[in-house]
Amino acid sequence: MHHHSVTRPVHDGIIVLDYGSQYTLLIARRLREIGLYAEIVDGSKEQPPEDFTFHGVILSGGPDSVTDETARKLPRWVLDSGKPILGICYGMQLLAQEFGGKLRSGHQREYGKATLNLDVSHGCWASSMLSKLPESQTVWMSHGDDVENLTEEFSIIGRTGDGVVAAVAHKEKPYIALQFHPEVQHSECGKELLSLFVQDVCKAKLNWQADDVVEATLDYVKETVADGKVLMAVSGGVDSTVAVALMSQALGNDRVTAVFVDHGLLRKNEASWVKEKIESLGVNLVVLNRAQEFYQALSGVSDPEQKRKIIGLKFIEEFETYAKANEGFTHLGQGTLYPDVIESAGHGAGAKVIKSHHNVGGLPERLHMALVEPFRYLFKDEVRLVGRKVGISNELVDRHPFPGPGLAVRILGEITADKVEILQNADQIFIDKLREKDLYKEVWQAFAVLLPVKTVGVMGDNRTYQWTCALRAVTATDGMTAGVGDLPMEFLVSVSDEIVRKVDGINRVVYDITTKPPATIEWE
Ligand SMILES: Nc1ncnc2c1ncn2[C@@H]1O[C@H](COP(=O)(O)OP(=O)(O)OP(=O)(O)O)[C@@H](O)[C@H]1O
Ligand SMILES: O=c1[nH]c(=O)c2[nH+]cn([C@@H]3O[C@H](COP(=O)(O)O)[C@@H](O)[C@H]3O)c2[nH]1
Ligand SMILES: NC(=O)CC[C@H](N)C(=O)O
Ligand SMILES: [Mg+2]
């Protein structure tokens, strides 16, 4: 699985033509779940891959606009192949335009949740496929361009609640295209739709058994590290905890040293908790206390990307200094996941940088150790599954994710030790209350954000003028898309009440009700 782009496990399947979407690998991953191998091919490639029999082509979404002259086109071989095509978002716009349809920009923008209403009444071949789905369903959108009109050759088979053209099919050829993203978890029948396309339309035979990911990971680690030694960066988070357990299993405890950096931007009491839990796995652990150094490096910095880059570099500096002082480390291990890679534009055909994850975009050009990242092509829920298989406790596997740059990306603007303390206290109240009310597991991730906004309040008959705290809770499975956590208002009010009463410095609390997209989960 990890080598999907290096070695090809099977020689037939589906081609996913990549136009730089944030979700390209998610399409391939859904097909794996369905039981089919997908080969990802750069959208600008003039030839199909050699030695690969494809039963259909899926055109990914992408940041380009087909209304721009410079936008990437559909390579000839795709239509020439005569194979079924499924266009998604940009892929749909491209297909529609290829056949003479007209697209427009900025007329009907949709981000996040939308309702798809299917119309299967006009007898187009795709009707029978789509009639297996509910007539009305929730889908997830992320587009600014939309179809103004189509040529005769196409039928409109679905629109959103706002009337936007959301699904079209060629009247004769096996071409179908969707404005929404069936590959994201928030599109209700998305996986079913993909499955109908590859099985009913492409007639592809299932050829992919979900590999034993544990075995594949162990092999990958053994092969990559050979007889070397790993300095494994651990955070106490899900990914690095599962990774370090696997590395110890693959290489033996004496060839793996876990290094945990306390950068002073962790949650309250996090450092001691992590130390205890990682040591209980029987792993060698070194804790580096570096709060002062990180604060100093970040002093006066308020730009989000700059903060991320500084933190990424500081992390690596710490790892390299440690490796230098303690001879023999050949590899740096990280719990990097695919979403970290794609959002930092570390993979794919011109995907845009959304934010530089500290462990990818923050890496220096020259690193003195080789990287070993067993989960670089996996998603969070896949890693959780691996974790359970190797016997990591639920307490660790079910933790909410916590970003490497920590509170630095949750204190908007400049970071000071005072603000860190204020935010730690507010966050702890929120998280403790979620656990107390049995709501922690109802959301995928929850946290508090400190806004550099002061507002006026009245407490004990006195005027206050203090910071604003935003609470964020999201639903997700892989973090690529997110919904708003549906927490009871009464609960939110009680959290707000306790924060304002107990945390000196905050006199107002708001709840973030934005999905991803258009927002991201973290505020920076
Ligand atoms: N404080 C830290 N000390 C050392 N390494 C860290 C620290 N924070 C993050 N890392 C490294 O960066 C990687 C990416 O961080 P990320 O937060 O995505 O993963 P995680 O912390 O392992 O899991 P989770 O996403 O559940 O928080 C980690 O897997 C780990 O290798
Ligand atoms: O280790 C990390 N290093 C980072 O730099 C980073 N930035 C975001 N995140 C986490 O990734 C998920 C998606 O977050 P966004 O929607 O904010 O991009 C969410 O779970 C975020 O908490 C990070 N994790
Ligand atoms: N997600 C997408 O594929 C977006 C396509 C195109 N850039 C638009 O905004 O409509
Ligand atoms: Mg983390």
Strand order of the largest sheet: 2-1-3-4-9-8-7-5-6
- What is Rg? 24 Å
What class do helices, strands and sheet pairing give? alpha/beta
Q: Helix count? A: 15
Counted beta strands: 18
Report, as a whole number of angstroms, the end-to-end distance.
31 Å
Q: Quick check: average pLDDT?
A: 92
Bound molecules: adenosine-5'-triphosphate, xanthosine-5'-monophosphate, glutamine, magnesium ion
Range of strand content? 15-25%
What is the makeup of the main sheet?
9 strands, mixed
Question: How many distinct folded domains?
Answer: 3
Helical fraction equals 25-40%
From the 3D structure, determine the CATH topology of the largest domain: Rossmann fold
CATH top level of the largest domain is Alpha Beta
CATH architecture of the largest domain: 3-Layer(aba) Sandwich
What shape does the CA trace take?
globular
Relevant CATH superfamily of the largest domain:
Class I glutamine amidotransferase (GATase) domain
Report the uncertain regions: 1-8
Give a structural overview.
The N terminus is likely disordered. It is built from 15 helices and 18 strands. β13, α11 and β14 form a beta-alpha-beta unit. The strands form three sheets. Strands 2-1-3-4-9-8-7-5-6 form a nine-stranded mixed beta sheet, sandwiched between helices. It has a five-stranded parallel beta sheet with strand order 12-11-10-13-14, with helices on both faces. Strands 15, 16, 17 and 18 form a four-stranded mixed beta sheet that branches. The relative contact order is 0.10. The site of glutamine has 12 residues, from β6.
